Amino acid sequence: MSEQKDRYIVTIDDREFDINLTRRDGGFIVENNNSTYKVSVDQLSDKKFLFKIDDSSSEVDIARNGSLLEIFLEGKEMNVRVEPFNLAELRKRAGAAIYGQGDKIIKAPMPGLVLASEVKMGERIVKGKTLIIIEAMKMENTIKAPHDAVIKEVFVTAGQAVDKGEKLVELE
Amino acid sequence: MSDRIKKILVANRGEIAIRVIRACHDAGIVSVGIYSDCDRSAYHVRMADEVYHVGPSPSRESYLNQRKIIEIAKASKSDAIHPGYGFLAENDAFSKLCEDNDMIFIGPKSKTIALLGDKLAARKTALKAGLSVIPGTDIDIKDAKTALPKANKIGFPVLVKAAAGGGGKGMRIVESEEALSESVESAIREAGAAFGDGRVYLEKYLLNPRHVEMQILVDSHGNAVYLGERECSVQRRHQKVIEESPSPVVSEKLRRKMGKAAVNLAREAGYIGAGTIEFLVDRELNFYFLEVNARLQVEHPVTELVTGVDLVREQIRIAEGAPLSFKQDDIAPRGHAVECRIYAEDPHHDFMPSTGIITEYREPSGPGIRVDSGVVAGSEIPVYYDPIIAKLISWGANRREAIERTKRALTEYRISGVHTTIGFGCSVMRSARFLTGDYDTNFIDAEFPDKVFECSESDQTQKVAIAAAVYDYLNRSKISMTFKRGPERSTGWIDFHRREAVKRLSKLG
Prior knowledge:
The complex is a heterodimer. By secondary structure, chain A is mainly beta. Chain A is built from 1 helix and 16 strands. The longest helix of chain A is centred in the middle third of the chain and has 9 residues, at 85-93. Chain B folds into 5 domains: 7-106, Rossmann fold; 135-204, ATP-grasp fold, A domain (Dna Ligase, domain 1); 207-334, ATP-grasp fold, B domain (D-amino Acid Aminotransferase, Chain A, domain 1, 2-Layer Sandwich), CATH 3.30.470; 335-457, ATP-grasp fold, B domain (D-amino Acid Aminotransferase, Chain A, domain 1); 469-508, no CATH class. Helix content of chain B is 38%, strand content 23%. In chain B, the strands form 6 sheets. Chain B has an 8-stranded antiparallel beta sheet with strand order 13-12-9-10-11-14-21-19, sandwiched between helices. Chain B has a 5-stranded parallel beta sheet with strand order 3-2-1-4-5. Chain B is globular. At the A-B interface, strand 1, strand 2, strand 3, strand 4 and strand 5 of A face helix 8, strand 16, strand 22, helix 16 and helix 17 of B.
């Protein structure tokens, strides 16, 4: 049988990994950045896997969240996008049409109570300006502007309870 | 005379409730737990001998519901109530309510709590006892307008603090005139929400002091001892995250001086029970009275590990009216202890609280390790309460060993499902500056300007990338067989993946 390689683009924060997978002996040969690793994986429970990458072993929790994978490794969570190489190329050529919304929509980082909404529609703001104050776990958490922008829309008002991920403000 | 306590209601939740329940069980005392709606199956509910529902999830309607808690204490025939820390621990009205209902409150008398809990009155008491205090206002600030002339007189930067405060709540650093009004207003709001008392006052903001505190125990027979200091200078948003005992900068001579000051203040205030006197220490090792914590502290275990004294057990004995079983000379700290608090917070995003279900939970163990935890796998971190998960406390023959053990234990710790401060703890334990012991309350900002906190020094991100690719490969080969009942909500991307997979399979065929 011919050996089949699968090429992936994995994006974590601002880093992009170009990864080639080849199935071998019940495991994988992984090529990344001119290095080759021998990888095997055992499923420990529903979302838990034991990865052996060369001689090091790591317990990894993986859950799917929409188009992303949420991966926990040694107490750290990372949001990971995995795409077959062709698809990633296609998306790049198509521009940011789909994912371009990036940090234009400011979402609630946690469930809580909106204490104050400090901006108005059409307001011009600078990076670091307080947008919304949310009370959660008895603390005031200030949501600030990630960059200079104009407020396109404010979705919440003081006194309103919000869920994690709920839209707060849209920037332009 | 003194009566043995046979049953204690623990008016708290999470790790501290469990800590107190354990002390009860060590002493053969029956423990009574209370729980709010969302804590129905919480770990402390599983640990207590008897449990009672106290109310809806918001703390004001449950763990702060004084009448209801007294009712439960009476109905369960408890002899005493232990408040833990937070919630009703420093509430003089609750302590009074216990006194009026012949219920033993395991903590100071209500009038002592009232005196010390009011930070303005506490400052005056400290001055009377001969302690130095930080320059500031001795009256409360009603609004931003009255604040300005006062702040100008003290000189910026100033600290806005809640008179009823604690734990950094209702506290703001104000660098300049322009920021004063917003800070005062939000501090009043936050203090009002957290303590039901919106009074705030101003204090000179000392630049990068160390935060050192002294543990004391005072019985009802006039015996008072100090049990050494705790260094608490590693803080984020004015809340401690890592503590150690002894402090790397406190000499035996300074310890005696601080200890005596603490004991003098306790006597002046008529203090009975376990308490902590907090000091700010400047570069020249002058120490200034900051506040009294009239309760058990979160970080009490570091003192327990170096002194061998069970502070909760002593609190119970003192509440029974027993005299202290040891004298000042019997307290001889041994070795070094480090506590690392594990919070459900994301250190990479300004320590934002992280709620959710803990999907996996595995504690470290081995030589010198103690974990005081409030959760098990499956536990929820609710939005209503403090996001503390656990405290990891390590003991070593010396500071170096205690730090090495903390580092080792943190890398053994496994928590999934929520963000935690484990990686942050590792970064601190690795930090050269922390190792020298030369750090102050500005440590986190100064040491981690790029805010990257990880346990491993190797490239974790690459590992995750490889794992993700392999997972996706395996998952998609599976999906291609059963894609008609795929588990996810259908999105364009997933459909695309599926078509790709099918195409590849048909090519193989």
